[in-house]
C-alpha cells in the first residue's frame, strides 16, 4: 500500500514540476502579428485579443528607416508628442521587455505616422495575474495561436495533484 502511495505522490510531483514552469513561461508578442509594425493597421483591435504579463516581450518588426518605435507617457501618446528624452528605437526588429505592471504607450516617431494611428497602448498584468476577461481566441493563421496556454497547464497540474490525493 505504501509503495502505491509513493508512486502516486511521485507522479503528482512530476506533473507539477513539468507543468507549472510552462505556466510561468513568458510570451513573445509580435506586434501586428504577420503584418508587423506598419501603417494602416488597427493596433487597438490587435491589443484586444492579447494579454500582456510581466516577463513577456513585445517585438516590433518593420522596415527601417520607414518606421521607429518610441515609448512615451500617456499624455504624449494622446498628443503624438515625442519628448527630447524619449528613447527611440530604430533597428527594424526592436524587442521591449515588459518588466513591470501598468500601462505602456508606444508610437512610430516617423513623420505623421502617430497621427495616422500607428500607435500601441497596452496594460501589463502581474506575471501570475488572471485577466479580468479572457480575450477571444485568435484566428487559426495567427502566430498568437502558438502562444503557450497558461491556464490549461495549471489546470492539468491541479487535476494531476487531485488524482494523486484520491489514490492516497
UniProtKB/TrEMBL annotation:
InterPro entries: Cupredoxin (IPR008972), Phytocyanin-like (IPR039391), Phytocyanin_dom (IPR003245). Keywords: Copper, Disulfide bond, Electron transport, Glycoprotein, Membrane, Metal-binding, Signal, Transmembrane, Transmembrane helix, Transport. GO terms for molecular function: electron transfer activity; metal ion binding. SUPFAM superfamilies: Cupredoxins. It is a single-pass type I membrane protein. It comes from the Eukaryota. Residues 1-24 form the signal peptide. One of its GO terms (biological process) is response to symbiotic fungus. Its main location: membrane. One of its GO terms (cellular component) is plasma membrane. CDD domains: Phytocyanin. Residues 27-126 form the Phytocyanin domain. The keyword Electron transport applies. It is found in: Membrane. This is Phytocyanin domain-containing protein. It comes from Leersia perrieri. The lineage of its organism: Eukaryota, Viridiplantae, Streptophyta, Embryophyta, Tracheophyta.
Amino acid at each position: 500500500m505504501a509503495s502505491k502511495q509513493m508512486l502516486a505522490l511521485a507522479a503528482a510531483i512530476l506533473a507539477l514540476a513539468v507543468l507549472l514552469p510552462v505556466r510561468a513561461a513568458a510570451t513573445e508578442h509580435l506586434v501586428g502579428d504577420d503584418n508587423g509594425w506598419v501603417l494602416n493597421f488597427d493596433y487597438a483591435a490587435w491589443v484586444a485579443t492579447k494579454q500582456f504579463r510581466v516577463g513577456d516581450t513585445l517585438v516590433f518588426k518593420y522596415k527601417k528607416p520607414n518606421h521607429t518605435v518610441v515609448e512615451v507617457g500617456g499624455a504624449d501618446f494622446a498628443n503624438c508628442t515625442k519628448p527630447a528624452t524619449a528613447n527611440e528605437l530604430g533597428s527594424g526588429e526592436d524587442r521591449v521587455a515588459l518588466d513591470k505592471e501598468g500601462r505602456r504607450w508606444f508610437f512610430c516617431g516617423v513623420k505623421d505616422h502617430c497621427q495616422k494611428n500607428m500607435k500601441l497602448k497596452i496594460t501589463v498584468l502581474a506575471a501570475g495575474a488572471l485577466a479580468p476577461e479572457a480575450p477571444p481566441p485568435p484566428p487559426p493563421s495567427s502566430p498568437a495561436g502558438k502562444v503557450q496556454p497558461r491556464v490549461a497547464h495549471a489546470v492539468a497540474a491541479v487535476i494531476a495533484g487531485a488524482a494523486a490525493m484520491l489514490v492516497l
